[in-house]
Structures are given as C-alpha cells and as structure tokens.
Amino acid sequence: MSSSRKPLLIVLSAASGAGKSSLCRELLARRPDVVYSVSCTTRAPRGGEVDGKSYHFMSEAEFRRRVEAGDFLEYAQVHGNWYGTLRQTVEEAMRGGYSIVLDIDVQGAQQFRERLADLPEGHVIRKGFVDIFVQVSSMDELRRRLEQRGEDAPDVIEKRLTNAQRELAAAPDYRYTMINDDFDRAIEALLGIIDKEQST
User: Maximum CA pair distance of the chain?
Assistant: First the structure.
C-alpha cells in the first residue's frame, strides 16, 4: 500500500466493558489503511474460527520455540493457553505502509514498551508506536455496562471490576488516555489521535 501517512503501531488497552473492541471494529471500518493484528494462540479453534484470520493457531511446543527465538513482541498465558503478537506480523504490515492496531491488556502493553527499547532508534515499530488507554467516566458506569451486557455472573463482574481498578492504575503509562462515555465522540477522538500521530 502506497501512502504518505506514517504507519503506526496502535496499542489499545482498556478495562473490560470500556468499549475497546467496538472502537477497534469502527476504526477498521473507517480506515482502510489500518489493519488488525492477528495474534498467535495455543488454544484450539472455536466455532468458525479460521487459522490466519481469527488467530494463528499453533502447538505449545511451536509457541515455546518461537518465544525462545525472540519472535514475539509480547506474549502471556491466559486461562492455561498462550497468546502472543509476532514481530513479523507487525513489521510486515508497517513496512507495507499500513498502520496496525492491537487490542491488548496493560501487561502486554508494558512488554511492548520494554521490547521497543531494544530496537534501533529509527526502526519502523519504534517510530510508529502509540499507546492509548480507553476508560469510562467512573467505576459505577463500568459496573452498569458489565451488568447490562448480561454475559457474566455477579462474582465474575466483581472480579472484572477489581481487575479494572488495577488496570486504571496503569493508565498514566500510556501516551494517551481517552474517555468512552459517548461512542461517536470517542471514535472521533481516536481518529484524531491517529491523524495527529501520522502527521508527526
């Protein structure tokens, strides 16, 4: 893709229920120069998931081999399965002129920052890295959203809220923080951040 826009590595993090996934979907729908980062996982495919589109599915042995080789920009174990972002996936998109968006938690974002420090000053990933933390105006609003979704039992909601408080403590580590109380305003704010970063 030939474009005068600077390719970005956009890391989006948020507490569960803050609307990060919806913002990602809308961003991809509006901006053809932005692609979604397909993660690797050791878990089995579910439903209609397609290898290479939903996830890159691999064995635990293969995942561990690639960890040892330093192929991942970030990785973590979640509910007994491994998930990670390959450096090659990100580099290929950015060198092709695309910006790439990742929906990852605060621990993954911290791993990215640590790996960036190891990259040369002019490296495409280091030059294009931008991290954004999405939050809502209050814990009460977050609770209301989680309850309204109707997906989780009360004890799971309490756990998500406890995790959210821990995640909020990491918000100052991000270059940008934004509020998603009104979706239309939030997506415009996200697009504005991306436009600003691509022009610098």
Answer: 49
